Amino acid sequence: MSEQLEAARAGFTRRAWEDAYTRLAAVEERTGLDAQDLVRLAESAYLTGRHGAAEDAWSQAHEAFRDRGEVAAAVRCAFWLGLVLLTDLGAQARGGGWMSRAQRLLDDHGPDDCAEHGYLLLPAALAELNDGDPGVAHDLFGEAAAIGTRFEEADVTAIGRLGQGQALIRQGESERGLALLDEVMVGVESGRVSTIAAGLVYCAVIHACQQTFDVARAQQWTISLSGWCAAQPDLVPYRRECLVHRSELAALRGDWATAVAHAQHACDASGDLPGSAAGMAHYQRAELHRLRGEHDDAAAAFARAADHGRDPQPGLALLRLDQGRTDAAAAAIRRVLAQTDSRVPPIVEEASAPRSRADLLAAATEIMLAADDHEAAAAAADELAAIAEDLHTPLVEAAAARARGAVLLAEEQAGAALDALSDARARWGQLDAPYETARTRVLLARALRELGDADTAAIELDAARKVFEDLGATPALGRLEGLEASTSPAAAAGLTPRELQVVRLVAEGRTNREIADALVISDKTVARHLHNVFTKLDLPNRSAATAFAYEHDLV
What we know:
This protein is an all-alpha fold. It contains 31 helices and no strands. The chain is elongated, with a radius of gyration of 28 Å.
């Protein structure tokens, strides 16, 4: 057992968490562990996803230190157990109970001046950050960080400064807040912060970057988190968050295959574990299903996200829009907008809340235009523009420009819409976001058509179609084809969207068999569509249909 214990301690030092846990658990079962080794058991259990074992070990360590009169160490055990219960498992009652126990023990038996006073400022600061006054939270976090610096406690210093940065962002001072978070990350990368604290900081910083739509920062710190996780293969808690963030970035860059793989791995890693990471993972998977037109899978994944505490909006409302259930989509987005406060800066940390007010507003603009509620769409676009002006980040500026252009287009102001949508297309292009760029090009093509520039409009639509086809963005492709069909000479002659597809493929020189394979229909159905085309367009044969297609820019 002595050799086993030494090997366990060595594994813990080199961050081999599975090996450390297995050996420590074996020694605990055979002979028991002292208080410090119980702490190692608790941390390695937590880091390998064994939440029940971690809670038991921290509780035992707390009791052991308290019985030996080591108040500071007992307080610290209670703090970490309480923090994990509060922030990772969502167990508010138990987590709050452990924090209260730690505070009472420190008040009754602890020294007046020690690092643990800094640790125990953090729960109150977190409560103010989430549900109270961010200015008060900033001051409390700052006091905790100062205590950590004085006692050279890297963990409390890092978490305190992290909280200060989050509080600044909540107060609308995104630039100052993100700069402070960068400073915190430099400290984490130096290796002085414990693994649990480092993981909390990584995830919170990347979350803040995404909430402020700072894609460049999010990508930088996600790459760093990926390397940190890769160096600890047994790590469970933060790997899920890392996979979700990597999926989100891959989706934005147009690598949907990688995005799907990361999202699925994050869901698999989450299993039935509670906490916000599982909700994030299932929501991201739902969004990818939605974008690819897999409606049933998307609905099921949104439901799983809700089960894990993640509000399924605005993604679920956009899914209903894709399904043609415009009234349901509008009702859902109106409800969620009414429940969020437009006066609060668009940074929301709670797992149960939508990603941000800005996301809701972008979705609301699209949904309200589809519902012919132009007034509500314009209001959403205006508020989104105000957020973009405050944040000054490329992604939200691109979203705001597109929303403004869509509203102007609906109001038949094609010239102004063209300017806004050209700006949006350029911004999405700078972000290397092909799907969002293609969506913007569709709107841009509509504006160009309204202004009589059919040739340039066709170029924009062709570019968008290629992106949608490459990505497998079925709903977007269907909307594009519907737009083309509704404004083409073929549509004027009464051709359906499917008949228009057949004409295009005939013009490409495809045989009936090849057309059937491409459209996943029978040869007989292709022949029927061709007969309808010849009748409606008064054409004698395939050659005439091909000539018609080229004359009217259908290919």
